[in-house]
Amino acid sequence: MAGAGLLFLVLGLGLIAWITGRARAAAFVKADRTNLNSLPSYHGWYMALFAVVPPLLFLAVWGAIVPALQTDMVLSAPAAQALPMDGFARASILSEARAIASGAQDTAFQPMAEQFVPLYRAAIAHYNWIAVAATVLLLFAGGTYAFTRLKPDFRARTKVERVVMGALLTASLIAIVTTIGIVASLIFETVRFFQMVNPIEFLFGATWNPQSTVTPGGDNGFGAIPLFWGTVFIGAIIAMIVAIPLGLMSAVYLTQYARPAVRKWMKPILEILAGVPTVVYGYFAALTIAPALRDFAAAVGIPGASSESALAAGVVMGVMIIPFVSSMADDSIAAVPNSMRDGSLAMGSTKSETIKKVLIPAALPGVVGGVLLAVSRAIGETMIVVMAAGLTANMTANPFASVTTVTVQIVQLLTGDQEFDSPKTLAAFALGLVLFIVTLLLNLVALRVVKRYREAYE
Amino acid sequence: MTDDNRRNEQLARIARNNMGEAAADVPSEPIGLADPKISARGVNVFYGAKQAIKDVSIDVGMDNVVAFIGPSGCGKSTFLRTLNRMNDTIPIARVEGDIRLDGEDIYSPKMDVVQLRARVGMVFQKPNPFPKSIYDNVAYGPRIHGLASGKAELDEIVERSLQRAGLWNEVSDRLSDSGTALSGGQQQRLCIARAIAVDPEVILMDEPCSALDPIATAKIEELIHALRGQYAIVIVTHNMQQAARVSQRTAFFHLGTLVEYGKTSEIFTNPREEKTKDYITGRYG
Amino acid sequence: MIDTTPRFTVDGTRTAPTNWDSPDMRKRIARRYAAERRFKYLGMGAVILSAAFLAFLLYVMIGNGLSGFQRTEVALDVDFPALTGGTGAAALTGPSAENTAASLDLPGVVSVAVEAQYGETEVPIFSSGAWQIVQKRLLEDPALIEARQTMWLPASSELDIAAKEGGSAQAERLLAALRAGDAVQTGFNSSFLTGSDATDPAQAGIWSAFKGSLMTMLVTVILAFPIGVLAALYLEEYAPKNRWTDLIEVSINNLAAVPSIIFGLLGLVVFLNWFNMPRSAAIVGGLTLALMTMPIIVIAGRNAIKSVPPSIREAALGIGASPIQVVFHHVLPLALPGILTGTIIGMARALGETAPLLLIGMRAFIPTPPGGLTDPSTVLPVQIYLWSDEVNRGFVEKTSAAIIVLLLFLLSMNALAIYLRNKFETRW
């Protein structure tokens, strides 16, 4: 790990720069008895930043380009003539040689790789020297420049604070960069997918049976409607039928009826439901709920019952969402002014009449916003449906039958044997893009509804 | 002292004008009434360990408007809320003593609080119409209590209640608009109409004008005059001129105790207690 | 049915009041109270049902999983002097001990000993990894090799299932015979906590997945915590109100609600395909989860920073502190407990996350613990997913046992968050 060693070297020298800068500033005070513009430690930070930041930037760039440089050096050796011309075979030999040379691997599976190990060792050592030299040079250059600028009236604090501000701004821009990264990567792959498969077929086709090779213009089994239906059926219908009444009634009971001691204990207990990992729910659904539902359906005589059913996944997902709906409902009801409740009670309505006819209608926009957020979460949920909903793309409204969802198919398409650039692999990104857009819209609408609702009562 | 005197005379004049012919009907004994609508004896209210009302006894008659006055925090609103058991909604509040409505103990286990509140209506400090249409706001009470046997009768109740609250002419053509879209004074009259629609016997008003401008206040006061005699009305106010204008009897509260209760004209012209005198002459409060 | 006496006459004067005591009215009030009670019980029912579901889930997991921490052991007589050609204890000490042990052919030794004691059996008696336990014990105590020993070794998966919940007829028969000879006992399955993934459920353990989780979380927290805190400080304390700031805010709020699998797609395309980072590596998993956790930390951090009263900032500004000093000397320390609470909750979510890690390939079969951040590794939830797909019945208890371990960690993280919140919660 030459990189780590170098990193520690830079940081160690940075510490020395900090101490030097600080001592220099302290010396000004002693010598001239003047007041510094900034505290000595700011002078230290100023020097340390100048010493450390350029080498670190250099190392980041260097890390990205150096493997290519090393490979070029290896390939320029006479032994490289013996390499096979096939790009893939060549790359695998080289990468194995590199792995052995850097100590990540012990023995070679391809005999030819052994030949290149010494070459790689040499190349790595060569470029390591360059890296160390350049780093140290940059560090001292930066440090010396900063050192010469230190004076009693030097505004070190302002300079350092400007850097801190820059760091803060950069950190907050990462959110935008991430969003752009998501959009860019999804769109990039989706466009490649749509070059192979007609978008009309993808968005409106009714058969999902993706093939690795496509015939342009024909039906290639990339019709995603059954997946959209399965996603809506499980996430927006079955899960909400479970989550909305249970979540809403729990919130009403805990905020309006329960004694404080009960509320104090039951609220965190219900919140545990939201903290259980989805893989645990998925396993629970597949192990316990799904077989029970299948047996029930078989006993009652419902046709099409399967051991992986929309109902099993939907019910368990609904339970997972209960605390979410409940806390949104709780917040919305709490935001209704107490005077409404008093007004209703003072007319002689009972508590439940007040809740049903005044509080919930008044809180409705907030509750609806919360439900939209819950739907957005449910349709993006993956593990429960992967483990309990199944893989067959059925267009059925029978909750005991197996259906599949967008997320299940993304996992399915990307975790089997991957063929890069196959439409099957790329289809996952198109599905991801659809999922992203739908959840984005749901979130934006929901957040706006909730925000407007809050403002109405402020 | 001359300022005080002038102020005193002014209040007394307002009270005398207001009393008019009714003044003769009001019995002169301070607390006991021959036929009280509400009769409270030895009432204490506690919030947790803190005592908010100390040993208050008072009678409210059918034929007059009673004003509760006193400095803020004196317990007048708290006492008002004990009269229709709105204090039940505060978990730490505890009420002791005897409060009777038409001779029935309202704190007895047999008393149904839903029925009690239908009989003793309340109007709050801040107008609190429900976020529903004007019609639904007024119809809410009759609907939950089942006071109308059909749509026509409900329409009639709504219209009559709005008329009696003096709001009908302003809203008759937009009954389906939201109640929260009205102006503050209109909202408060809507709340009064809402309370009237349940056909109560007593109306409690907790500083009903404190959030309103003078014109809206004048309208509410007119309304109180018009309603007088049909309902027993208790109004809490911190505005002494308002008390003098609308009430026939006034109770002065101080630090949770009832200091003095009597005819409004007497309280403002010739208070028996030194504290009352200090308060109405503006020495504190 | 309703009292219809007119309440107001036409001229508006009052007549008879509503008769609240009429039988109709009494019935109506009774009905309303019944509805009130029903509504209350409905609410109570919703709470109880939700809690019961949680209890049922935990009950099933604990019921299935507790046996995963135990293993069935069977006694085996090993005549070491005869089977190892009289190797002395001295050969198993010192630096060459491992080599000596390897040269002893312990798998062979064990199978000969089994053959000698039990003969041919319909189902294997011992786990195929039993010899490793023998080797470990010999290295710990070389003296053992100089005499005949009775050793308790882990039973095969089939026998283990038969002992715990009833298995195949052959296994049951064999078990009965062994029990008759007092050759069966139940012991703590330490290899479950120290072992790695294996095809034989009797040998499978969670250590490598657990280590993978720890390394992934380390990367996540190192990246997400500072970035999240700095972004929260910027947005709450310095950001001007303009379209850029709005855009950042919308991005963060939206990222917090984007399905986790989308982050997996991002990681696959950007980190693996564009940046050529290693597949299945903890560092890629950590990066992906950091992007997912960062918005949660930002939102929690902003709420914590917002709750620091402005008077403290004004006081510090008033004595001449710069805006940066105000924030780093006063606001941040006061907001830190809230930020930490949010961070722990975000980390707990990341620890339980599965889907995005599947997409970046952290679903490989990892038979040895990963050595570094770039080594192929897996994490606990993914291990649970992989085991849940196994057909071998022996993996059911392993899956549930791994779930118990995961839940214990998550619960203690959440408990820590609640403790921090209660301890440092300040009411201004």
Characterization of the model:
The complex is a heterotrimer of chains A (458), B (285) and C (428). Chain A is mainly alpha-helical and 458 residues long. Chain A contains 15 helices and no strands. Chain A has helices at 2-32, 40-75, 87-101, 111-149, 156-196, 199-204, 225-257, 260-275, 278-300, 310-335, 338-346, 351-380, 383-388, 406-415, 423-456. Chain A starts with a helix and ends with a helix. With 285 residues, chain B is an alpha/beta fold. Chain B is built from eleven helices and ten strands. Chain C is extended. With 428 residues, chain C is mostly helical. Chains in contact: A-B, A-C, B-C. At the A-C interface, helix 5, helix 7, helix 8, helix 9 and helix 12 of A face helix 1, helix 9, helix 10, helix 11 and helix 12 of C.
- The end-to-end distance of chain C, rounded to whole angstroms, is 57 Å
Count of the domains of chain B: 1
Query: C-alpha Rg of chain C, in Å?
Result: 33 Å
**What is the assembly state of the chains in this entry?**
heterotrimer
At the fourth CATH level, what is the homologous superfamily of the largest domain in chain C? Answer: MetI-like
Quick one: overall form of chain C? extended
How many structural domains can be distinguished in the coordinates of chain C?
2
Q: Can you identify the CATH superfamily of chain B?
A: P-loop containing nucleotide triphosphate hydrolases
Shape of chain B: globular
What CATH first level of chain B would be assigned?
Answer: Alpha Beta
CATH architecture of chain B: 3-Layer(aba) Sandwich
How much beta of chain C, percentage-wise? 5-15%
Overall pLDDT confidence of chain C: 85
Poorly predicted segments of chain B: 20-30
Alpha-beta classification of chain B: alpha/beta
Short overview:
The complex is a heterotrimer of chains A (458), B (285) and C (428). Chain B has 285 residues and is α/β, with parallel strands linked by helices.
Question: Which helices and strands appear, and what pairs or packs with what?
Answer:
The complex is a heterotrimer of chains A (458), B (285) and C (428).
Chain A: H1 2-32, H2 40-75, H3 87-101, H4 111-149, H5 156-196, H6 199-204, H7 225-257, H8 260-275, H9 278-300, H10 310-335, H11 338-346, H12 351-380, H13 383-388, H14 406-415, H15 423-456
Helix pairs in contact in A: 1-2, 1-4, 2-4, 2-5, 3-4, 5-15, 7-10, 7-12, 8-10, 9-10, 10-12, 11-12, 12-15, 14-15
Chain B: H1 2-19, E1 38-47, E2 50-60, E3 65-69, H2 76-82, E4 93-101, E5 104-105, H3 113-119, E6 120-123, H4 134-145, H5 151-164, H6 168-171, H7 184-197, E7 202-206, H8 214-227, E8 232-236, H9 240-246, E9 249-254, E10 257-263, H10 264-269, H11 274-280
Parallel strand pairs in B: 3-8, 3-9, 6-7, 7-8
Antiparallel strand pairs in B: 1-2, 1-4, 4-5, 9-10
Helix pairs in contact in B: 1-9, 4-5, 4-7, 5-7, 7-8
Chain C: H1 23-65, E1 70-79, H2 80-83, H3 97-103, H4 106-118, H5 130-140, E2 148-154, H6 157-165, H7 169-180, E3 184-188, H8 190-194, H9 207-238, H10 243-255, H11 260-274, H12 282-306, H13 310-318, H14 323-351, H15 355-359, H16 380-388, H17 394-424
Antiparallel strand pairs in C: 1-2, 1-3
Helix pairs in contact in C: 1-17, 4-5, 6-7, 9-12, 9-14, 9-16, 11-12, 12-14, 13-14, 14-17, 16-17
